[in-house]
Design a protein that fits this description.
Number of strands: 8
CATH superfamily of the largest domain: Carbohydrate-binding module superfamily 5/12
CATH topology of the largest domain: Seminal Fluid Protein  PDC-109 (Domain B)
CATH architecture of the largest domain: Ribbon
Largest sheet: 3 strands, antiparallel
Helix content: 10-25%
Radius of gyration: 17 Å
Number of domains: 2
Strand order of the largest sheet: 2-3-5
CATH class of the largest domain: Mainly Beta
Structural class: alpha+beta
Distance between the termini: 57 Å
Number of helices: 2
Strand content: 15-25%
Shape: globular
């Protein structure tokens, strides 16, 4: 049993190291559960990704460490904007666009996303195209 636990921990760590190379959008939308939970008295370096709380979809909310530090209770990612950047959602709370995997997660007419520095609204149901290519309208303001 202990050997299986050790192997599982090693696999999880390998996935974490691999996941450090992906974009913020992919991390948030496709692999959020791979990242470790934020904890107190833990050393973090710039670029680390941690989970803390849940996002609007009920998935783990991810944060990228901006500045290396040793964490403390009042420096949680959701409280310390100088130390952490929330990823997966734009500053205004709009979801960052990610490529749908199929019909089950395609965008519906009226859905809004953030992509390439702009906010976009889907003009179609079951929209799997990238904003700016087909089926999207840039939202002004």
């Amino acid at each position: 049993m202990t050997d299986r636990i050790t192997r599982a921990r090693q696999l999880r760590r390998a996935l974490q190291l691999w996941a450090a190379q992906v974009t913020d959008e992919s991390a948030m939308m496709e692999m959020a559960s791979v990242y470790p939970a934020w904890s107190e008295k833990q050393g973090y370096k710039a670029g680390d990704i941690v989970a803390c709380g849940s996002n609007a979809d009920g998935e783990p909310q991810l944060y990228r460490v901006i500045q290396g530090h040793v964490s403390q209770a009042d420096w949680r990612p959701d409280l310390a904007a100088a130390l952490f950047k929330r990823i997966g959602f734009a500053e205004d709370g709009t979801a960052i666009w990610t490529q749908p995997l199929g019909a089950q997660d395609a965008y519906m007419k009226g859905d809004e996303v953030y992509r390439d520095g702009a906010r976009w609204r889907s003009l179609l149901d079951n929209n799997v195209w990238q904003p700016g290519v087909y089926g999207w309208q840039k939202v002004e303001g």
